[in-house]
Here is the input.
Amino acid sequence: MNGKNRSNIKPGIQVAVVRKQDQGSGRLTRGIVKEILTHSATHPHGIKVRLTDGQVGRVQEIFQNQPAPKQEPEVLMETKKNKLDGKKIDQAVAAARRKMEQLEKTYREKALQLFPWVCARCAREFTNKNVHQLTVHHRDSDHTNNPADGSNWELLCIYCHDNEHSRDLDQGRSDGLAPATEKGPAATYKPFAGLKDLLNKK
Ligand SMILES: [Zn+2]
Ligand SMILES: [Zn+2]
Here is the structure.
């Protein structure tokens, strides 16, 4: 890097200059550029600068071509880290969702083995053809509470299941559990909400 091109020199960089009184001996003075005094793009004897200590000379050597980056690396690392964390969170959410879907599939299969295919509210009976309309309701509204004896499960048709949850919302809950616990992404009754009304209108 030579000191003859103005574009190589910026305030804050470390340079060696030759002062006017040293031009005979060629003695170099090292320092940090404070301001550039040469206005043309190049100078055959070096761009004239004032150093931070006030000395003036023509640049002979440039020791670094950028001001020392003090905090930049940390900032960059921080940004990178945040991006990674965001990705991790996405992955965790996706994993939790898969686990939830897997869980629902598992307890639904178990519940269908355990109980007769009859809605516990309206006593409608189900067969292989329409069993997809028979859903598993959790008595305590906790999808993760799945005792193997089925004591927390109830098979409800999608309509009764829907009603069951609107009832929860109407009455409010006194046991301190969030009423919307079951309304996760894996809940199956929700897509059919309002279907009953549509059918009744016919
Ligand atoms: Zn339910
Ligand atoms: Zn029913």
Remarks:
- DSSP finds three helices and six strands in the chain.
